[in-house]
């Protein structure tokens, strides 16, 4: 399984690194104002996704009929209907969305983006079905090769357009490449079926995920909408880039962890003892990702920002550590949601994310009153802490997960987050590597390493795999 883990992690990392590279190149090529507009494209795509997401890819993995050809045809038919509906919604909201952000002249671009969900609706689901059998190569290929194509074509696009339209064309090329590759990598022929009984069954599975998708929109984009509307596109560019640099690694590792843990947990759900042990490892995996983000930001965050983006984005150093702490807490709670999902408790993630969404009106008021993003990040972090605690409680009550083994890793994780914030208050992340290595940062690093060592289930599983015992 470690070889498969390496394939999934490296494939997802490669694809996400390319998307990050694309964002960095576009940020270098255009002004902060234009990059702020470009970052709104991702937000509007998230609006559509949240309105139609019912977890069809996850259902292909966990459902007992996921291997059945008719079931797959029905899910692909459902995906086509989703794509058509999403395209219509996106086209209709394009002008109001542009007006809300104060960039009415860009509405045409959002209308062009409406073709993306229509294309995405035509993807082949074999790449998701094969994950049931721990075959990840087609999925990894469809997640890594299209971003590579979009990056390689950036320079020709930039010769034609010198503004936010570079990102617009790149998104269209990436989506088309992904859909084509999903068919090229498939084992089964592509067929559609409109079995409304199976669609209803998928909807019953997915409605909590739909609710969670709405909540995740608030989690990933709520503050960005607030900053963009109230503080303008240039401020949004800095804020969005800080999100991108801290969110990308957590999404890569978090999605890889779910792809690895969910099939195994689903297979063990009737074996309480094994499920508990593997579930503990899954939760520890989410916390470990948060630890690694903190460690990287504490020791290398300042120099990386300066090298990648130059002085144009030095203002990001002011919010880099608070943003990293918030993202670390967010990803830490994903392990418990994966454990619950393995037992078809798909609503747990939505409940855990609700705190972040409920905090958005408070964040909006804070921005209006103070004009500062610090209070936004503080409010979001508190909401994520509450979500983390609730996610553990729900996994215990609904999935039977024992929480005692997670107590010490969670305590050390909280101490590490507090230490990172205190360190950033003492000395902001610095552009130079040597200037960045303040003694307080080594203390935070030591706490993080101690927390990683406390994860006995995750460590035990990795050691057993290395010895060939599991």
From TrEMBL:
<keyword id="KW-1003">Cell membrane</keyword>
<feature type="transmembrane region" description="Helical">
    <location>
        <begin position="373"/>
        <end position="394"/>
    </location>
</feature>
<feature type="transmembrane region" description="Helical">
    <location>
        <begin position="164"/>
        <end position="186"/>
    </location>
</feature>
<keyword id="KW-0812">Transmembrane</keyword>
<feature type="transmembrane region" description="Helical">
    <location>
        <begin position="439"/>
        <end position="462"/>
    </location>
</feature>
<feature type="transmembrane region" description="Helical">
    <location>
        <begin position="406"/>
        <end position="427"/>
    </location>
</feature>
<feature type="transmembrane region" description="Helical">
    <location>
        <begin position="350"/>
        <end position="367"/>
    </location>
</feature>
<comment type="similarity">
    <text>Belongs to the polysaccharide synthase family.</text>
</comment>
<feature type="transmembrane region" description="Helical">
    <location>
        <begin position="37"/>
        <end position="56"/>
    </location>
</feature>
<feature type="transmembrane region" description="Helical">
    <location>
        <begin position="275"/>
        <end position="301"/>
    </location>
</feature>
<feature type="transmembrane region" description="Helical">
    <location>
        <begin position="134"/>
        <end position="158"/>
    </location>
</feature>
<dbReference type="GO" id="GO:0005886">
    <property type="term" value="C:plasma membrane"/>
</dbReference>
<feature type="transmembrane region" description="Helical">
    <location>
        <begin position="198"/>
        <end position="220"/>
    </location>
</feature>
<keyword id="KW-1133">Transmembrane helix</keyword>
<keyword id="KW-0472">Membrane</keyword>
<dbReference type="Pfam" id="PF13440">
    <property type="entry name" value="Polysacc_synt_3"/>
</dbReference>
<feature type="transmembrane region" description="Helical">
    <location>
        <begin position="232"/>
        <end position="254"/>
    </location>
</feature>
<dbReference type="InterPro" id="IPR050833">
    <property type="entry name" value="Poly_Biosynth_Transport"/>
</dbReference>
<feature type="transmembrane region" description="Helical">
    <location>
        <begin position="5"/>
        <end position="25"/>
    </location>
</feature>
<protein>
    <submittedName>
        <fullName>O-antigen/teichoic acid export membrane protein</fullName>
    </submittedName>
</protein>
């Amino acid at each position: 399984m470690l070889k498969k883990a390496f394939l999934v992690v490296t494939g997802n990392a490669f694809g996400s690194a390319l998307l990050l590279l694309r964002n960095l190149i576009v940020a270098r090529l255009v002004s902060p104002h234009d990059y702020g507009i470009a970052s709104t494209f991702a937000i509007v795509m998230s609006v559509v996704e949240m309105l139609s997401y019912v977890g069809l890819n996850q259902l292909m993995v966990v459902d007992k009929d996921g291997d059945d050809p008719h079931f797959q045809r029905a899910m692909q038919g459902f995906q086509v209907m989703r794509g058509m509906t999403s395209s219509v919604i996106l086209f209709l909201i394009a002008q109001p969305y542009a007006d809300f952000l104060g960039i009415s002249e860009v509405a045409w671009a959002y209308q062009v983006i409406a073709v993306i969900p229509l294309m995405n609706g035509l993807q082949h689901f074999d790449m998701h079905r094969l994950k049931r059998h721990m075959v990840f190569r087609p999925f990894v290929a469809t997640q890594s090769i299209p971003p590579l194509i979009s990056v390689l074509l950036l320079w020709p696009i930039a010769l034609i357009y010198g503004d936010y339209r570079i990102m617009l064309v790149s998104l269209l090329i990436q989506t088309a490449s992904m859909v084509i590759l999903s068919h090229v990598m498939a084992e089964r022929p592509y067929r559609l079926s409109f079995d409304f009984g199976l669609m209803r069954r998928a909807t019953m599975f997915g409605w909590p995920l739909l609710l969670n998708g709405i909540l995740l929109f608030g989690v990933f984009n709520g503050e960005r909408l607030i900053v963009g509307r109230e503080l303008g596109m240039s401020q949004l560019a800095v804020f969005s880039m800080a999100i991108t640099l801290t969110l990308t690694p957590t999404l890569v590792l978090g999605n890889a962890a779910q792809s690895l843990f969910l099939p195994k947990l689903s297979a063990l759900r009737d074996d309480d003892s094994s499920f508990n042990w593997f579930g503990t490892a899954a939760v520890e995996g989410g916390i470990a990702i948060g630890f690694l983000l903190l460690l990287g930001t504490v020791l290398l965050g300042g120099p990386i920002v300066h090298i990648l983006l130059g002085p144009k984005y030095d203002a990001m150093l002011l919010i880099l550590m608070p943003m990293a702490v918030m993202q670390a807490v967010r990803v830490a709670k994903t392990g418990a949601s994966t454990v619950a999902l393995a037992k078809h408790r798909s609503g747990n993630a939505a409940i855990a994310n609700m705190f972040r969404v409920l905090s958005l009106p408070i964040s909006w008021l804070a921005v209006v009153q103070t004009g500062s993003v610090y209070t936004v990040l503080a409010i979001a972090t508190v909401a994520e802490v509450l979500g983390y605690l609730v996610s553990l409680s729900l996994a215990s009550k609904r999935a039977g997960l024992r929480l005692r083994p997670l107590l010490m890793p969670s305590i050390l994780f909280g101490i590490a987050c507090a230490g990172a914030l205190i360190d950033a208050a003492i000395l902001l992340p610095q552009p130079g590597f040597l200037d960045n290595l303040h003694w307080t940062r080594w203390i935070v690093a030591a706490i993080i390493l101690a927390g990683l060592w406390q994860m006995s289930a995750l460590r035990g599983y990795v050691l057993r795999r290395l010895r060939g015992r599991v």
